[in-house]
Amino acid sequence: MLWRKQRTKGVPKTGSFTLADVVPLSIAPNAIFRSTLRELFGRAVQTLTGHGFTGEYYQRFVPTESPWCSCSDEVTDPILQTRQHIICECPRYEAFRNIIRKNHPNVHADNFSLRPLFDPRSGLPDLIQFMRKSGAFTKSGAPRPEPKPD
User: Fold this and answer.
1) What is the model's pLDDT at position 28?
2) Which of 3, 17, 61, 112 is most buried, judged by most C-beta within 10 A?
3) What is the dihedral of CA 24, 113, 55, 73, to 10 degrees?
């Protein structure tokens, strides 16, 4: 109830979940999540809430893991691996950004907000497709094998 009251009063949200706070809470997943493979569903939720395989998460919760992106030299030019970096900047995923850019052409811009990509009514299907094909937000950063039909 407190969440609803704050949301209607325009109280600014903080933290990693803020970007994902684009639709009201629900006790059941929406259609995009119901049609998403389980592994990808979990990875998408982790990414949306800031609890996925990223350096920004490791800095806060797993200090034994390096927070630096593997596309950088962590000694001379470290780049913190953030959701923004993975989706918009990391050269490892450049070949897959066209999946997002077709509906969000400014994804490469410095001031591009990830918020529209996290909206299940518009950008989330593109983000999930990007994640599926690229392997973004997996521990290894590589695409996972497609599941075999039952």
Assistant:
1) 82
2) 112
3) 170
Enter the tokens of residue 54: 């990223």
pLDDT in tens, 53-76: 999 999 999 999 999 999 999 899
Residues in the chain, how many?
Answer: 150
Pair of tokens at residue 63: 């200090």
Q: How far apart are CA 69 and CA 63, in angstroms?
A: 15
The region, left, alpha or beta by phi > 0 then psi within -120 to 50, assigned to residue 65 is: beta
Sign of the alpha-carbon dihedral angle for 93, 73, 68, 20: negative
* Angle formed by the axes of helices 124-134 and 38-49, nearest 10°: 110
The whole model's pTM is what?
0.82
